[in-house]
Amino acid sequence: MYAVGWVKGLKMSEKGQTYHTPALLEESLKGLNIQSSGIYVDVTFGGGGHSRAILECLGNEGKLYGFDQDADSKVNITLDDRFVFVHSNFRYLQNFMRYHGVPQVGGVLADLGVSSHHFDDETRGFSFRFDGELDMRMNGRSEKTAYQIINNYPEEVLADIFYTYGELKEARRVANQIVKSRIVKPVDSIHELLEILRPFSAREKEKKFLAQVFQALRIEVNDEMEALCDMLMQAQKILKPGGRFVVITYHSLEDRLVKNFFRTGNFKGNEEQDFFGNRVTPFRIVNKKVIVPSAEEIQRNPRARSAKLRIAEKVV
Hints:
The chain is α/β, with parallel strands linked by helices. It has helices at 25-32, 49-57, 93-99, 116-120, 146-152, 155-166, 171-184, 190-197, 206-222, 224-238, 252-264, 295-300, and strands spanning 2-3, 39-42, 63-67, 83-86, 105-111, 239-249, 272-273, 279-280, 283-285, 308-314. The protein is 38% helix and 15% strand. The longest helix is centred in the last third of the chain and has 17 residues, at 206-222. Helix 6 (155-166) packs across helix 9. The strands form 2 sheets. An 8-stranded mixed sheet has the order 1-4-3-2-5-6-10-9, sandwiched between helices. Strands 7-8 form a two-stranded antiparallel ribbon. Mean pLDDT is 91; it is low at 1-19.
């Protein structure tokens, strides 16, 4: 945990100046309905883009907590007495807010996408554009890596991961080929994995196919879906009535969970009704229609093209 001061003008470190271009920034700020003296949490601090914008909206009495498990994000810490950086996975949100003596907050923001920094860093293993180690850890202190999954998981478990998290129709065949290859020799690098995967996709669909495989591995390495569920439940508990919950998702698995949770208060989307037949839910949906980037934003920031923004307000 780190509490740090702020440099007037919202400057960030030289190393981190091109770390992250926030998606749907104006829409996120509007969705949070920021009060100048309120307390807010950015559970995906990353490059600090959303956090800096939130701080610009806060007065002297306001407070912002930024969570990130990736040590690389520390270079983007903003120097402001109103800001507290928490070096932790957002799945421990409630514990850390309790530690800081904050029982309730006015808003929570989650930008769930993988940052440009992660995709562009050859040493992290998130992108199939570079050769390197099969890593994919958001938290470098974690023991589980993509290498361990590829080389140690049983074939049926690998298939389930590719089918569930990557939505791959060829999941079983891909898993079978990986297992056959690793019997001869461990799969040591991204290049070796790509060679195994090459026969499974046509040239025109290769990038989409590889993106699905790498997404599945990344989700498993970082336990992303379970962590997301933990965070959503804890954010509900620490939001005060009238507090806003703003979540940006980048693939259907995340978006389905968030949509169901906002609509029904559970992840399967099962509606509960009171004695009078009214839906029982802790939230009021603020945007009935999901918010997506404009054509202009996508042109400026192509990686925002799959972003979907949902906003809910706590009612109970």
